[in-house]
Amino acid sequence: MRKKISLIGAGQIGGTLAHLIAIKELADVVLFDVAEGLAKGKALDIAQSSAIDGFDVNLLGTNKYEDTKNSDVIIVTAGVPRKPGMSRDDLLGINLKIIKQVSDGIKNSSPKAFVICITNPLDVIVMALQKYSGLPKNKVVGMAGILDSSRFKYFLSQELNIPVKKIRSLVLGGHGDSMVAMIDHTYIDNKPLIEFIKKGKIKKEKLENIVERTKKGGAEIIKYLERGSAFYAPAASAVEMAESYLKNQKKELPCAAYLNGEYGVKNLYAGVPVIIGSNGVEKVVEIKLNEEERKNFDKSIKSVQELSDAAVKIDQNLA
Ligand code: APR
């Protein structure tokens, strides 16, 4: 039987997700939004491209959770995106309320789904989504690390004039200004990035700029767009996670996952490498961090913890 993916939020990311999923024929798609016309219009528009692109999936736009019933995967983008000058943290109060509603909808209609959260501020919203919905922790995961790593790899490829495909790297920690690019775990054409620095092929300052640009990758796009935030790369990242789950690919991907002692962190969601297969988050992969990476990772965790404390202040039920 064909799989079913429901997208909660049919805005910029939701629409792009629907299009990508359809073109890949990954699953039937339900686009859900409180703005019913938006969901219906996008579903119909994409469906009308099927005769051209030759894909065969059903697309439905709705504002009823009933239509999302028994989804295999749910991708949540419902919320308010950042406006210029607004930090991810400012969004917390508004988006927590939205996520409470969404969690109730998921709990009632698709309690067995694999749920991928994109709504910001990511690490805390995904934690709230898990708590409000009561779904198992290995079935609720946040999309951030793939996007941040992809931005980092792209900037490196531009600087070094090497195809992105030849670059391996990952960005961990919270999805915010404290995210940590793992320099020691970055390989260019299978050679450690460190060697490139030693040989002077990339200057330390240049690398620092790239790390900084990665951290502010989302803000750079918001500034250009003026209205709304990035959507192509975030959607592509979430599709990679959904595909690994649906096809049991067991890919190792950096995601915001629930930590229960791994990396010395307990009872918090944060960006770490995980294996995604048909059981959801099947494993948190613990890579060895060097002193600098450890220090920066801990700093990042501290900021996630602070945001989590702020969320608990807004709603005691999240404690
Ligand atoms: N239930 C369902 N959908 C909702 C709800 C709700 N309670 N509240 C708002 N929405 C919908 C809005 O109607 C809108 O169509 O969520 C959609 C969000 O879409 P956009 O505003 O276009 O935002 P987008 O760019 O897709 O980003 C979504 O991802 O990267 C993060 O920070 C970003 O939190 C934001 C989210």
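^ adenosine-5-diphosphoribose complex. The chain has a mean pLDDT of 95. Residues 8-14, 33-35, 38, 77-79, 81-82, 98, 101-102, 118-120, 228-229, 231, 234 surround adenosine-5-diphosphoribose (CB under 6 Å).
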